[in-house]
Design brief:
The protein is of the alpha/beta class and 534 residues long. Helices cover 36% and strands 22% of the residues. Helix 4 packs across helix 5, helix 5 crosses helix 6 and helix 14 packs across helix 15. The longest helix has 18 residues. It binds glutamine. Glutamine binds next to strand 19.
Length: 534
């Protein structure tokens, strides 16, 4: 079968959940035996979100090949259980960067370089690149932003051209909102009509409309939308609010979105999608037998999207343990030595979040100290592991003022220090230690217990490292390096002896956690929290 292209645009408002919709559709197609991949096109000028503050754009997600990407790619991987790569996230910045580089090389042979055709050609090239090798039956492309935004125009134009070029091999799904007006007690379709009009003004007729709604849409509303927007009424699909994003594929299956899509391509639907594993995951998260409460200490607690992969990894790991994981977000700037015990009331474990810069570090150190001294299960991720090392150096090894050189360049005890290859770097974009690296796991450690494997691969995103000058001090006093990079000798994981469960990892286990393959270290952490409760 030749590769089919599915474009998903959004209308009316942002945050309707295009990422979840596209992941759900891709999941259903995958469960019918097709090979699928999902791509996101982001209309901002940053080359990638790696340099963006989480307040701007939520978490920065990292792929195996070290791309710093939009958090929607996390959803794609969690739903499909398949890795994405650099090619799966393209921004306007990256498009312009390659066009301008070509122009500087003289590739355009004296032509005037313009949005049409040069920018749109580059967009189309990036879309078709994924389908080119014939690896995928379906390439699903999510267009970031909302139709009508000035910055998404070149993308809509590229889709218009592609639809024309690809004929029956491309369709457009438009996701919009049908708001409910409390005062009149009515569902309103006008915003949807307007947003389809906006698409039509740009020459794109959507093939399928997915309507986000808080209430069931009856036949007459669907018919009305179909009539005004030139689609058949089978192609108007409702997407009703559900308690968990993992239920959306099931809802889309009930609405036969996958069947409608296949029919648009002239493909016979065949057997029903195989969703047994997914359904059993769903039933476990809906019917937990126990509950734990975990404190997540970070500085972006007002913005849960900043820790998206972590909170999802907890859901996956909770399901394995048939346990509901309640997350209590603790603002690291609010924690100090005097009030720390109060924050731990009712907690079964604590996670110290990744992060950059010195804001909130003190609170993280205090929370780590409390967890270490009071034998509370502890997981430190990236900066969280570095904090565990700093806290141990200061309070156990008596290295007064021990620090990471990220926070204090002049510290007497730089227990966390810049990697050698990072020292000359002045360009901040895409220059961290990024992507998946091997880690050799010490047998008999908690890390080994969790992974049951001597070599694991996990993703990284950091510039600083455990300073191995102090390796023996830590080892001899109970904070033991148990995960080592086999090529560089860098410390990837430490754990505390004589503590029920205290593990720090320099890598980000949350990025590779999926519904079907939950992160082993999260699973083990939840288990430890359950045991701590007993
Ligand atoms: N700021 C730390 C570093 O760059 C940790 C980064 C992180 O937590 N992702 O090494």
């Amino acid at each position: 079968m030749s590769t089919k292209y599915i474009f998903v645009t959004g209308g009316v408002t942002s945050s309707l959940g295009k990422g979840i919709l596209i992941s759900s559709l891709a999941k259903l197609l995958q469960a019918r035996g097709y090979s699928v991949t999902i791509q996101k096109l982001d209309p901002y000028i940053n080359v990638d979100p790696g340099t963006l503050n989480p307040y701007e754009h939520g978490e920065c997600y990292v792929t195996d090949d070290g791309a710093e990407t939009d958090l929607d790619l996390g959803h794609y991987e969690r739903f499909l259980n398949a890795p994405t790569s650099q090619a799966n996230n393209v921004t306007t910045g990256r498009i312009y960067q390659s066009v301008i580089n070509k122009e500087r090389r003289g590739d355009y042979l004296g032509k005037t370089v313009q949005i049409i055709p040069h920018i749109t050609d580059e967009i189309k090239r990036r879309i078709k690149l994924l389908g080119r090798k014939g690896n995928f039956d379906f390439v699903l492309t999510e267009i970031g932003g909302t139709v009508g935004d000035m910055e998404s125009l070149p993308y809509i134009e590229a889709i218009r051209q592609l639809k024309w070029e690809l004929g029956k091999s491309a369709i457009v799904i438009h996701l919009t909102l049908v708001p409910f007006l409390n005062a009149s007690g009515e569902l309103k379709t006008k915003p949807t009509q307007h947003s389809v009009k906006a698409l039509l003004e740009n020459g794109v007729q959507p093939d399928i409309l997915v309507l986000r709604t808080e209430h069931d849409l009856n036949e007459s509303i669907r018919k009305k939308v179909a009539l005004f927007c030139n689609v058949d009424s089978n192609s108007v699909v409702q997407s009703i609010d559900v308690p968990t994003i993992y239920e959306v594929p099931i809802k889309m299956k009930e609405e036969k979105l996958d069947v409608t899509v296949l029919k648009k391509f002239g493909i016979k639907p065949g057997e029903e999608p195989k969703m047994e594993a997914w359904n059993s995951f769903l039933s476990r998260i809906k019917n937990p037998k126990k509950e734990v409460c975990i404190g997540l200490v970070g500085k972006y607690v007002e913005l849960p999207d900043a820790y998206k992969s972590i909170s999802e990894a907890f859901i996956h790991a909770g399901a394995v343990n048939e346990c509901k994981v309640k997350l209590k977000l603790i603002h690291s700037e609010e924690v100090n030595a005097d009030n720390v015990s109060g924050f731990f009331e009712g907690l079964d474990g604590v996670l110290i979040a990744p992060g950059f810069g010195h804001r909130g570090i003190k609170g993280k150190v205090e929370a780590t100290r409390f967890a270490r001294e009071n034998k509370v299960p502890f997981l430190g991720i990236c900066l969280g592991m570095q904090i565990a090392v700093i806290e141990f150096a200061r309070n156990v090894l008596q290295m007064t003022g021990a620090d990471s050189t990220e926070m204090n360049e002049l510290t007497k005890f730089p227990v966390i220090d810049l990697m050698e290859e990072q020292k000359g770097i002045t360009n901040m974009g895409g220059t961290m230690r990024l992507g998946a690296f091997a880690c050799k796991v010490k047998k008999g450690s908690k890390l080994f217990d969790a992974y049951q494997n001597e070599v694991i691969y996990e993703r990284h995103r950091h510039r600083y490292e455990f300073n191995d000058k102090y390796l023996d001090d830590f080892k001899n006093n109970g904070l033991e390096p148990v995960g080592i990079n086999p090529e560089t000798g860098l410390v990837e994981s430490v754990e505390l002896k004589g503590h029920p469960w205290f593990v720090g990892v320099q890598y980000h286990p949350e990025y590779s956690s999926t519904v079907i393959n939950p992160s082993p270290i999260f699973v083990a952490f939840i288990k430890a929290c359950i045991n701590n409760k007993k």
